[in-house]
Design a protein that fits this description.
This protein is an alpha+beta fold and 196 residues long. The chain has one domain. 27% of the residues lie in helices and 17% in strands. It has seven helices and eight strands; from the N terminus they run E-E-E-E-H-H-H-E-E-H-H-E-E-H-H. Helix 5 crosses helix 7 and helix 6 runs antiparallel to helix 7. The model has no long low-confidence stretch (mean pLDDT 93).
């Protein structure tokens, strides 16, 4: 994941706290020299609503905040454990898009999520504003997430018509993600595996 580290908690959205959300302790792969965890596996340090090494947690954990914590662009009710949407801000490397990309990892009920009007509106607004947007589904434990870019002609054509047309395209793309063959993630680092 090319997420953008942000250690400065003062830059986070006010009044948004992780609370008991631990999606970032389960869903993504963590592959840094000081901590490793396969995708889809809870970190062995995560406790019910907390972390047993929170004060001394590694920099990979200390510096990471999901998109919901970092940007007001995400609605208030999109906290990952409540919405089923684990949004991650990434560095964009495609020249036709803005420097910041958005990966929307569907960790709840994916079909229900892509049918939500607020989700559809969020996607359409970013695609129209030249923000690279990716739809993702977590793979099985230790496998890469399936990922598709949403900046494509079918979405743009549907966005010019109606929200219902965008929903149909999102449902079609979701079917492609579900059918995507899984690929194991190969760790670059070792020695500090906290996967359970």
């Amino acid at each position: 994941m090319n997420s953008i580290p942000q250690a400065n908690a003062e830059l986070l959205v006010r009044a948004r706290e992780c609370g008991e959300c631990q999606v970032c302790c389960i869903t993504p792969v963590i592959d840094s020299p000081d901590i490793q965890k396969v995708c889809g596996s809870p970190c062995r340090h995560s406790l019910r609503g907390g972390c047993d090494i929170y004060e001394t947690r590694p920099h990979a954990c200390r510096d990471f905040y999901c998109g919901w914590r970092r940007s007001r662009d995400f609605p208030d009710d999109w906290r990952p454990d409540r919405s089923g949407i684990f949004a991650v801000l990434e560095v964009n490397t495609l020249p036709q898009f803005k420097p910041l990309a958005v990966a929307l990892n569907l960790v709840g009920n994916p079909l229900k999520t892509v049918r939500r009007p607020d989700f559809i509106d969020f996607v359409v607004k970013r695609v129209r504003n030249d923000v690279a947007v990716y739809l993702m589904l977590p793979g099985p434990k230790g496998m890469l997430s399936a990922r598709l870019q949403l900046n494509n002609p079918p979405i743009m054509e549907a966005a010019a018509k109606s929200r219902a047309d965008v929903r149909i395209v999102l449902e079609m793309l979701l079917k492609r993600l579900v059918a995507h063959p899984t690929t194991p993630y190969v760790m670059e680092n070792s020695g500090h595996d906290v996967s359970t």
